Amino acid sequence: MKILTFTGKTPSEALKKAKMEIGDEGMLIETKEIQKKALGRDGLYEIVIGIDEDMIPATYQKATKPLSKQQPIKDKSQDVLYDISNAARQISEISKVVDDPLEKYMGPTAGLQERSLQAAVEPTELKEIKSEINKLTDKVKIIQNMFWDEKAPDLERQIPPEFAEIYRLASQSGMNKEHLDMLMQITLEHMPLKMRENSSTVKRYFQTILRKMVPIRRETPPAMGTKKVIMLVGPTGVGKTTSIAKLAARYSFLMEKKYKVGLVVLDTYRIGAVEQLMQYARMMKLGIETVVDPPEFSHALDSLKYCDYILIDTMGSSPYDKNKIEKIYECLNANTTEYHVDVVLVMPSSIKYEDLKVTYENFSSLGIDTLMFTKLDETMGFGNIFSLAYETKKPISYFSVGQEVPEDLVTASSDFLVECLLHGFNRSKA
């Protein structure tokens, strides 16, 4: 008996083919699904027919093998490849070539040796290429920097081209020129010669110096049995009231210990400010007191003596409005309690260094303890902040980086300020 197979998209199609090839004399032995039908692909069925050899029509020309000797197409392909390999080997032997030219493609380790060789060679080559590209990039950068406007700053010694980029970045940040020249002088004097080979190492060294020169006051919670009284002062529109709300939320909910917070409002000039802070106090369930005249200041602090933090909002004032600043001073001077009032000068980061300095000088009569900068998300230059903190030696305590309460408040760090100064404000790094 001969065993024949026929295939079709359906069993009936395969059977139809069988009838056309060998007629009705065969016997259906088995029906198999070889390939399932799927999206964009037809199914494939195979039927196995048994038939006496004498009954096979003369017209049936299909070359067949017994089913036991038939092989899957994949195996057949391997046989073909094996034959090609053998042919190549024979040709190699004839031509005295020892290595089989197809072995590396056809053998069991085909490609592995080549890939392992590439893995061993490519990283080194890539490293060398990357290194050369970096060197070229640095050279191009240096050439570009040779055309900068400040290429000949008024220093005792000439600034090498490798320092040009960092000088340009710092200069464009709004940093005071005297401070920048002083920093460059220090960098040139103390930087090891080997580190001057490229602008990247120069930049890292310059960053390190900047970090060390920014005065920062780290946030410390009140000691057991004590309290912190913090007064925010500054020009109008810098965000003092919003900053008070951020601090209140931070101390009340965001720190490891939940502190009791009370609010005092001196900003009775602006009804909107009082209502805004009243609303924050209601939302956070905080005690709040208002002060109209200086003698009421001590009474307000006493009323909130159960609190760990007392935050005081003051009326905004032009740096040149001496009367309003004097009014705040009278409140401070009228403090008869045992509590020390920590005065924080709040200023926007978006004004130039000269204006920051004037603001500081005019509010300095209040005894400024720390600096707080707002609106960091509204400016591209931060050298003015560095210069003011460096010039006044007053530490920075907080940065406000947006309007959201309480998320957009950042405890000050030199790393963050220097990052902003050299690379711009990045909210993800706040």
From TrEMBL:
A cellular component annotation (GO) from this entry: plasma membrane
SRP54-type proteins GTP-binding domain mapped to chain residues: 227-423
Alphabetical UniProt keywords: Bacterial flagellum biogenesis, Bacterial flagellum protein export, Cell membrane, Cell projection, Cilium, Flagellum, GTP-binding, Membrane, Nucleotide-binding, Protein transport, Transport
Domain AAA+ ATPase residues, every copy: 226-386
Any Gene Ontology biological process: bacterial-type flagellum organization
Pfam family for this entry, one: SRP54
Location within or outside the cell: Cell membrane
SMART domains on file: AAA, SRP54
Membrane topology: Peripheral membrane protein
One Gene Ontology term of the molecular function aspect: GTP binding
Function: Necessary for flagellar biosynthesis. May be involved in translocation of the flagellum.
Family, similarity comment: Belongs to the GTP-binding SRP family.
NCBIfam families referenced in this protein's UniProt entry, alphabetically: FlhF
Name used for this protein in its record: Flagellar biosynthesis protein FlhF
Gene: flhF
